[in-house]
């Protein structure tokens, strides 16, 4: 399967075809995900939690994300790979450009940053220097200590409006993709409608242009705690390949997420 690029993702949005995305951290799973038709692979800083056993993404370093990006790229020369910029690796546009360049050299096609309109200059400079940007709003795990926990965002009208405003500012600055995390379904819908670029949701309802899950959640690997917005596709698919194929099919058919995976205002 040939690599889908940002233009291809945009076409999917325009045609109303759902985008599928999973996190990936190594070459073997990358090959499986790519062969099963997953459109986008994210080397998430969630690796701190699912690979390193930490209780947040904050200690994850640029070198660690670069290492896993190289592993993912080794699994597929064609996959569309986004690499997460870890905590405090983009405090200003210049430092962001230098650090993002490391991830691009490691094999990323795009980098992802958590935050709202305060990142406008950074997004602008990254894109001007040839580094495509995926913005990430809603629940921002790197800001967990400020937010005071992993809580659903945008529940009241004012904060929902703010999220739409941030999304529009990031798009205007040059972001080519947006991830929205843990927001009510109607806010996910508002943001997706307000933007031209594709919006990929995690815990953001079924109306976004695509869905992303952390691969370990999607495989039901933390049986003690399966977040509300995820589903154990391994239990359903019966094998690793069956699980990934079931995820891809259910997202494409609009069956996942179902109402029980979504948040209300
Ligand atoms: O790090 C990560 O895996 C992410 C996803 C939750 C979108 O940012």
- Distinct bound molecules: 3-methyl-2-oxobutanoic acid
CATH fold name, please? TIM Barrel
CATH H-level superfamily title: Phosphoenolpyruvate-binding domains
Low-confidence stretches: none
Order of helices and strands: HEHEHHEHEHEHHEHEEHHH
Q: Compute the average pLDDT.
A: 96
Please, how many helices? 12
Description:
The structure is a single chain. 42% of the residues lie in helices and 14% in strands. It has 265 residues and is of the alpha/beta class. An 8-stranded parallel β-barrel has the order 1-2-3-4-5-6-7-8, surrounded by 8 helices. The protein is globular. The N and C termini lie far apart (39 Å). The mean pLDDT is 96. The structure holds 3-methyl-2-oxobutanoic acid. 3-methyl-2-oxobutanoic acid binds at residues 23, 42, 44-46, 84, 179, 181, 202, 212, 214.
What is this structure, in a nutshell?
The protein is an alpha/beta fold and 265 residues long. Helices cover 42% and strands 14% of the residues. 3-methyl-2-oxobutanoic acid binds at residues 23, 42, 44-46, 84, 179, 181, 202, 212, 214.
Give the secondary structure arrangement, pairings included.
Blueprint: H1 6-15, E1 19-23, H2 27-35, E2 40-43, H3 47-50, H4 62-75, E3 80-84, H5 93-105, E4 110-114, H6 120-128, E5 133-138, H7 144-147, H8 157-173, E6 177-181, H9 185-194, E7 199-202, E8 210-213, H10 215-218, H11 233-237, H12 240-252
Parallel strand pairs: 1-2, 1-8, 2-3, 3-4, 4-5, 5-6, 6-7, 7-8
């Amino acid at each position: 399967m040939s690599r889908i690029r940002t233009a291809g993702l945009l076409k999917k949005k325009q045609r109303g075809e759902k985008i599928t995305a999973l996190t990936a951290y190594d070459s073997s799973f990358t090959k499986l995900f790519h062969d099963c038709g997953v459109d986008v692979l994210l080397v998430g800083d969630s690796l701190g939690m699912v690979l390193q056993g930490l209780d947040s993404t904050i200690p994850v370093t640029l070198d660690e994300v670069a290492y896993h990006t190289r592993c993912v790229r080794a699994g597929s020369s064609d996959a569309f790979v986004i690499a997460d910029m870890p905590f405090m690796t983009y405090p200003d546009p210049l430092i962001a450009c230098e650090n993002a360049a490391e991830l691009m050299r490691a094999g990323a096609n795009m980098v992802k940053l958590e935050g709202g309109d305060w990142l406008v200059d950074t997004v602008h400079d990254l894109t001007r220097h040839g580094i495509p940007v995926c913005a990430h709003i809603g629940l921002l795990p790197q800001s967990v200590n400020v937010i005071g926990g992993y809580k659903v965002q945008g529940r009241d009208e004012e904060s929902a409006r703010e999220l739409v405003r941030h999304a529009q500012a990031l798009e205007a600055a040059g972001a080519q993709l947006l991830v929205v995390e843990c927001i009510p379904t109607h806010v996910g819908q508002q943001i997706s409608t307000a933007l031209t670029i594709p919006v990929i949701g995690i815990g953001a309802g079924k109306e976004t242009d695509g869905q992303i899950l952390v691969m370990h959640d999607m495989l039901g690997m933390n049986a003690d705690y399966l977040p509300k917005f995820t589903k154990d596709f391994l239990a359903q698919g019966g094998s690793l390949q069956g699980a990934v194929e079931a995820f891809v099919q259910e997202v494409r058919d609009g069956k996942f997420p179902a109402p029980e995976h979504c948040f209300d205002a």
